[in-house]
Every structure is written in structure tokens, then in C-alpha cells.
Amino acid sequence: MGIALQLLFTGLGIGSIYALVALGFVLIYRATNVVNFAQGDFAMLGAFSMVVLCIDLEFPYWLGILITVVAMLVFGALFNLAVYYPLRNRGFQPVIISTIGASILLENGVLAAYGPRPQALPSFFSFQGFSVGPIFFDSQYLVILGVTVVMVTLQYLFFERTLLGKKMQATSQDKEMASLLGIPVALMIMLTFIYSSALGGLAGILVAPILFVSVGMGSSIALKAFAASIIGGFGDVTGAIVGGLALGVVETFGSAYISVPYKDAFAFIVLVVFLLFRPQGLFGEKVAEKA
Amino acid sequence: MIGCRIVLAGMLAMLTCFGRAAEPLKIGMVAPVTGALAESGRYQIQGAKLAVEEINKAGGMLGRPIELVIEDNQTTNPGSVLAFSKLAGDKDIPGFIGPIYSTQVHAMAPDIERTGRPVMIGATDPRLTHMGNPWLFRCRPNDTYSARVIADYGVNTLGKKKWAIVHSTDAFGTSGMKNLVEVLKGTGVEPVLIQGYTNNSQDFTPVALAVKQSGADVMSTYMTFSPDQGIFAKQLRQLGVNIAWVGSPTTVATTALKLAGPALYGSYAVSDFATDSSPAAKEFATKYEATYKSAPDFLGAWTYDAVHVLALAIENAKSLEPQKIREAILSVKGYAGAEGTYNFDQNGDGLRGYNIVKNDNGEIVFIKHIDFSE
User: Fold this and answer.
1) What is the ipTM of this complex?
2) Cβ–Cβ below 8 Å for B213 and A136
3) Side-chain-side CA neighbours of residue B40 (13 Å)
């Protein structure tokens, strides 16, 4: 029992990271109908920014996090202008290729600038965590879970309760209609990129003390997050969160009770099962509606 | 400033003149400059460059300066094959420095055999030099020796009988595990747990729990990637597992030490390189630290030796003909390198010994060197 609870805790922690990155995927997809393959690299950038600020420049953590989040907001705007905006009327494929290109550029850019050595970012707190019976609660995992809950709540309130949030929702549902209603569509899309970028950066900040900071860290998370968003129902916010958490739990339990080497396979077996039997995902709309 | 530039330009011009007088001899190197193991590539390239500098200062090879031509393998098998064929296309390269990762050398092996020029490797899967490929020369001890040293130290010195083995499922980890199981069987020990995992795992909780539940009193690890080693060590300690640990060389790789910090304190490791193991190792360590301002590990040490051994062989062969270089490498005996004393056998294995080292609060302390004669 103790072991199962330990696994559940770790699984939810890892799952929260998938969920945060998946959320970024989903928001951009809803706004632009395009998958942003550089979403994982946003997390990598956030993590590297923390290393530069808090280790190399020895800033306190709170300042490092603040500067990183602000920098990621600016980066999101630039990303929108450079990667999406010029190709926005060219359809699906050019934009996807453009985001893949951006991903390669970012990874190799950071590699060239910072070098290949993975960095360790100390945990946010000096204490590592605490044990309750046989279960160890890692302080960093607790932070991740907490931040995910807060972010999801804030996001819900923003999209459902504020005018700006509703405008962004309207844009993602029907761009033509939204522009007829006087909503500045291009601006709304830019805001989506800005928010997704900050969200990705935040995921990177949170995961840095656990996974270590390396150039490839983003793409390995993004692959799982992508699977999570499909399982949840691509384009659905609740789905991304539930999908992410479920994936984290499934692969942790699968590797503990069935096979460790096949850990990654469990995530993708679940994905294949969903694609076969429920392609719209847990919470997704019917494919027909989308067309 | 302008004066400076003129002097620089003058030096460049002189260099070009010099180059014309004695055309540099090229040595190819396949290394991970990008990709998951780029950080190990940096150390390996640094080691190789240090050797090249020394050789050039001492008058070069066959009277010609040598030049290292590096091709990136992107830390992948296809990348390694591509990088090697690119280098092999240059007929002026008499020999190569290959990768340290067994999987990558396996991928390149058929092309190496076809090319028919010597490749110095750091990969430790024993099969590589026992599959009839005459062009692979190993500058590190292979894993049959690491397994013997791990088992000997754990069973005889530490007196532990309940073994857990954690290994990566790649070629290095699997062959290491198999060798260790074999050697342990010889001492009458059956491991209580053999646990594989895939490289780049983000979470090792299930592995750490399996070790905890197995009731083992000693653990050995064959882990390929330093970040994996770091995450595993941390999670293991968090779950309260503090059993004796005798790990593969990655356990004392510079990056793993830095990432894991206190989580690896108290662990033992076999390491082909230890600063205090010999005067040659000490000399290399001093030079390496002076040049790169960071502590050396086996990654830099083996390429340093590989370049020196290759250069020595070419010098002895007095020829660039592959067959003659091959014979010259195989007759290298008693060469004191940073990794140990090289005595090549007919399979192309240069070293047969490992050091046991202990991580004493972050300091790597040399305990003893165990050499096998056959």
C-alpha cells in the first residue's frame, strides 16, 4: 500500500509537468489550429534561464523566477512574430515546419551558447522533503503539484470570467466570427503565444531541480505531453490536464508493476489505444465538429 | 589593436608557409558534439586535443604535425555511421578515434571493416574485439574486467552476498550486467534483483523501490548517462536506501558527481582512470587541469591515450599503410598511459585492469588498482 501511494505521488508529480506542457500545446492549437513543436523547448529555455540567473549570476530564486517568467512572456511575443505570424495565411504545414525549425534552432542555439554540460539547479527549498510512513514527499514534487493546481484554477477563472479571456476563447472557436465582432484576432493569437510561452517556461523552472537542465530536456517532456494532449482530447484544456496526470500515473505504475524498460511504451500504448478506439480523446469534441 | 592584428596576420602567414613545408597528417575522430551525450564529447575532444598538442610540440608524427578532424555523430547510431563514412572518404586519414559508446561502435563496425583502417575505441562491450573485426583497438579495459573487479571488491573486500544489479538496457548496460552475473555465479552468488531501465528516464522511483524491496545489501550499477545516474542516486537516497554501492565508471564521471552531489557520497566505483593510480595518470591530470581548468575523468583520459598510442604505432611502423599500423599497434607493450599500462593482445585489447575508487564526500579517493594478466 505504501508503495502504491509513493508511486501515485511521483506519478502525479511527473504527470503535472506533462500537463503544464500539454496545456501550452492545446492553447496554441485552439488559437491557431497548429501544433507548436517548440513547446517543449520553451520549458528548456525557462530552465536554462534559471541556471544563468540563479547559478551563474547568483540571483535569489524569487528574482530568478520573476525575470524568467517576464523574459518568457517577451519571448512568446517574439516567437509569435517570427515563427507564426509571417506564415499565418499559408495553412497548416508551413507553420508546423516552421515550429519544428524553431525547435531545432533553439536547442542548438542554447547548445552553442551554453555548451553541452547538463546543469543541476538546487531544489527551491533547503529541505528535500519529508517522510510520512513509507512515503517520501519530495518538496519539489509538492511545489509542482501546487503550482499546477494554482495555474489551472487561474486559467479557468481567466478564460471563463474575464472579457479578455472570453475574447481569446472566441478567437480560438471561430476566427472569422471573432473578427466580425471586432475582436483583434492577431492580438489574441499573440496573447495566446505569450501565455503558452510563460506556461512552458514555468514548467521548465519547476522541473529543473528534478531532471537537471540540458538542451534535450524539453523534447523528451514534449513528446509525452503531446501524447497526453491527444489522450485528453486535442484542443481541450481539461483534457490536457487529465491526460497529463493520467499518463504520469500510468507510466509510473506500469514500470513498477510490469516492466521498467517498457516504461515509455506504456505511455504510447495508451496513446495508440485511444487513437484506435476514441480518437477524440477523453474530453474532445467529435471529429466531425472540427471539420 | 591594429598592431596586434598585423602580428596575428603575420603569424597566420607563417603558419600557412609552415603548413606547405610539412603537410599535416590528419587523424579522424567521431565524437558526440551535439545530442544527448554532447557533454561527454567535449571531454573526449579535450583529451584528444591535449595529446595532439603534445605530439606536435615534440615534432609531430613521422616528422609531420598532426591535425584532428572531428565529425559529430549527434550521439546517435546513424549519426556515427554517417560521421565515420564521411571521414573514411578522406584517403589521407591513416587512423581514427571512435566513440566510447558500445552501441555506436557496433553500428559502425561493418563500415570499419570495409574501410580497413585502424579505429581506436573506448567502448567496453567485450564482444567488440571478439567478433573478428581486425580494425578495432580498445584503449580502455573491457567490461569482463570491470565485472570481475566489482564482484571481487563487493564479495571479498566488503563481504556482501545479496546483490542488486541496476543496468541500462543498451549494449553497454546489458553486457555489463551479463558479465557481472556470470562472474558472481563463479563466486556462488545469485543476484536478488536484476533491474533494467531505458536511457533518459525522467523518474527512477520504480527502480529505487525495487532495490529497496529486494532486501539487497550491495548494489552494482551499469548506467550509461550521467543525468540518469544523478536522478537515480537522488531518488534512491530519498527512499532511504543506503546500501553499499559499487558502480560502473559513470558513477565517478565528472558530470554525475556534479549532478548527484551528496547522493553519491560513500559509493564505490570501478574506474579505468584514477589520478593517483600511476605517475602517468598524475602527469595527465596535471596537464589537463592546467589546460581546461576542470578535473579530468576517464572520458578525457582514454582519448588522450588513444591519440598517443596511434601516433606511437604510426611512428614505429614508419608507414601509413593500414596493415603495418595495425601490426605496430598490436606490438605496443608496456606503454604507460593515463589509463594504465598498455599491452595489446591479438584481439586489440590494450588494457586489462581497473581501479577501485571511493567517493569520499565528493573527493574521489583511489583505493587500489587490480590488473589481470590474461
Assistant:
1) 0.79
2) no
3) 25
